[in-house]
Amino acid sequence: xxxxxxxxxxxxxxxxxxxxxxxxxxxxxxxxxxxxxxxxxxxxxxxxxxxxxxxxxxxxxxxxxxxxxxxxxxxxxxxxxxxxxxxxxxxxxxxxxxxxxxxxxxxxxxxxxxxxxxxxxxxxxxxxxxxxxxxxxxxxxxxxxxxxxxxxxxxxxxxxxxxxxxxxxxxxxxxxxxxxxxxxxx
Length: 186
Hints:
35% strand, alpha+beta
C-alpha cells in the first residue's frame, strides 16, 4: 500500500520540478572552464524573479553547501554557484530550481519612518493613477515613493472630484458584472 502512495507523489515531484526548471524567462546556464563548473541564472524578462537553487552532487567540491536564494533583476545574468570537479569523478549533479515572480510590497517599520521599496525598472515607463482623500494617512508616503523612484503618477482626490472614482467603479463592474464591487479607501 505504501508503494502505491509513494509512486504518485514521486511522479508529482518530478513533474513539478521539471516544470519549474523549464521557465519561460529564467534559465540555469552551465559554463565549464576546466575543472570549474560555473552556474548562472539568466533572466530575459522585464521583471525581477526570486530564485531558489539547490544542487545535489557527490562529484564536486562546491563553494556553498546551502541552497541559494537570490533576486535576479530584469534582463540580467548572474553567477550563483561555482563547483570544482573532484579527481576521478564524472561531473554529475542534479538541481532544483524554483522561480517566483517578485512581489511588489511596501514594508513599513513600526514608526512608519522607514519605507523600503522593491520596484522594477519596467514600472518607470508607466503612469500610475492614485486615488486619494484629504485625510489619507499613507497617500503622502505613496507619492513620495513614486517620486523617489521616478515613476510618473496622476493623482485624483475623490473628496474634491468623484468623476474619476466613478469611472474606476464602472471599469471594475465591467470586469465582473455579477459581483458586488467593494473599494476600500484609506
